[in-house]
Automatic annotation (TrEMBL):
Belongs to the prokaryotic/mitochondrial release factor family. PANTHER family: LD18447P. GO terms for molecular function: translation release factor activity, codon specific. It comes from Eragrostis curvula (weeping love grass). Keywords: Coiled coil, Methylation, Protein biosynthesis. Pfam families: PCRF (PF03462), RF-1 (PF00472). Residues 176-220 form a coiled coil. Residues 352-368 form the Prokaryotic-type class I peptide chain release factors domain. This is Prokaryotic-type class I peptide chain release factors domain-containing protein.
Length: 483
């Protein structure tokens, strides 16, 4: 399968159909329809080069503008089954823009798509080589520190901890260095065996395989060096609140909360309800829960924000479509080590929990409200009949909120780009619209529309949006690396 980047006008689809790989109709086996996306651009580097802010997951067709090249349109076409090939689009485009070419009409073979896969662009290889040397120097320095007899216990512990953090990266660097040494030897063998045809062909074949392995190792090492969010592997706390729309918003908040519960079950994660405040029609005014499992926060962190729904409420007699909204907050779960809560900073109030009446009324002061005085953060839990259990849940939620506040503050200080990634901090952004009459869900950040709302609400096709957002994060990480 070839990957084509071509300068096209308005008839981009027609032009691409001239290529033999492009289907005239959408095959039923493809999970996502072929589509053309006009994606926003953002600065890729200080040189003024631009790249798309997101790419659709496989298979996809996308078009985006490049300000650096006088708003020319690049159409990228491919049928990919894994994410590494998508990085090839980024690499190829970066090289294109860096060289300032104005005429593009060529084919490009992505990783995993042909017998020979492209390596990283020369500029990224050069940057990675610099990073590798720094890591090797730091590793050697730390090894010397560890072996110093005069080192204090604190110095030894600190050096040993940092050294072990670099072990995985150092193993990849050593493997890459070894492969590069093997390639040099094979090149020499090919050059020195010109008279022996069989030996030369055998060496040339081994050289080709070694070069392919070198490219694979470079890709693997490059991805490991990209900036990462250290909280991605944590468990998370999900908070859903009804916004504008009255009772209909509460009913939609319940639907959204249950959607994430089903998505958690689909991924093999544990979902525990922390607290639910019901509305008159048994919707959820507020609901919170914990999601425990490998990479839970990393996959769900971009779900934070305003989710808008357009549908006919059950209370609507005339059949008019109403618009309502709910807010979703996804917080990385914090350990006691991460957030120290001092007793003097907490005000803990107990009160009688509410209920629907009759036997549901709690006759003891089991509900707990904790106020963190320095920040004014308030958490109230009344879900359990035990005051002790409600207090434990409230402290868990409070730690998560304070941890997220501190993370947000640090990211604001360190990087404006990263603060935009956590723009969900103020919970004011409309990120997604669920249109029930038209049966579609649109994510406004990446411009993707999925036309099976029932599957999304069942937690089945949320990955359509989540995977695209994770790709966008990876592309931002590449931009940060190159800068």
């Amino acid at each position: 399968m070839q990957h084509h980047l071509r300068r096209c006008g308005g008839g981009a689809l027609a032009a691409l159909r001239r290529f033999r790989h492009f289907p005239s109709t959408t095959p039923a086996s493809y999970p996502v329809a072929w589509r053309r996306l006009s994606l926003p651009t953002r600065p890729y580097s200080t040189a003024g080069e631009h790249l798309p802010s997101a790419l659709l997951h496989p298979p996809f067709l996308c078009s985006f503008s490049c300000e650096f090249a006088r708003r020319s349109t690049i159409v990228a076409y491919g049928n990919f089954r894994k994410f590494p090939p998508v990085l090839e689009i980024v690499y190829a485009t970066f090289e294109l823009l860096r060289e300032g070419k104005n005429s593009w009409n060529f084919s490009y073979s992505p990783f995993f798509a042909s017998e020979t896969s492209p390596g990283l662009p020369a500029n990224l290889v050069a940057i990675m080589e610099q990073r590798m040397k720094l890591i090797e120097q730091k590793s050697a320095y730390l090894q010397d520190q560890i072996n110093q007899p005069a080192a204090s216990p604190e110095e030894y512990s600190r050096a040993n901890k940092e050294f072990h953090k670099l072990e995985g990266t150092m193993e990849m660097i050593k493997e890459l260095r070894s492969k590069q040494k093997e390639i040099e030897g094979l090149k020499s063998l090919v050059t020195n065996t010109r008279e022996d045809k069989d030996m030369r062909e055998m060496a040339a074949e081994e050289l080709l395989e070694a070069v392919e392995e070198e490219k694979r190792l470079q890709h693997e090492l490059f991805r490991s060096l990209l900036p990462k969010d250290e909280a991605d592997e944590r468990d998370c706390i999900l908070e859903v609140r009804a916004g504008t729309g009255g009772e209909e918003a509460s009913l939609f908040a319940m639907d959204i909360f249950k959607m994430y519960e089903k998505y958690a079950q689909k991924n093999g994660w544990k979902f525990d309800v922390i607290d639910v405040m019901e509305s008159t029609m048994k919707g959820y005014k507020e609901a919170s829960g914990t999601i425990s499992g490998s990479g839970a926060y990393g996959k769900l962190k971009f779900e934070s924000g305003i989710h808008r729904v357009q549908r006919v409420p059950v209370t609507e007699k005339s059949g008019r479509v109403h618009t309502s909204a709910v807010s979703v907050a996804v917080l990385p779960q914090a350990d006691e080590v991460d957030v120290q809560l001092r007793n003097e900073d907490l005000r803990i109030d107990t009160y009688r929990s509410g209920g629907s009446g009759g036997q549901s009324v709690n006759t003891t002061d089991s509900a707990v409200r904790i106020t963190h005085i320095p920040t004014g953060t308030v958490v109230a839990i009344q879900d359990e009949r035990s005051q002790h259990m409600n207090k434990a849940k409230a402290l868990k939620v409070l730690r998560a909120r304070l941890y997220e506040m501190e993370r947000h503050r640090l990211h604001m200080d360190r990087s404006k780009l990263r603060s935009e990634q956590i723009g969900s901090g103020d919970r004011s952004e409309r990120i997604r619209t669920y249109n029930f009459p038209q049966g579609r869900v649109t994510d406004h950040r990446v411009g993707i529309t999925h036309h099976s709302i029932a599957d999304v609400m069942e937690g089945e096709n949320l990955d359509v949006f989540i995977d695209a957002l994770l790709l966008q994060e990876e592309m931002d990480a590449i931009a940060s690396f190159a800068a």
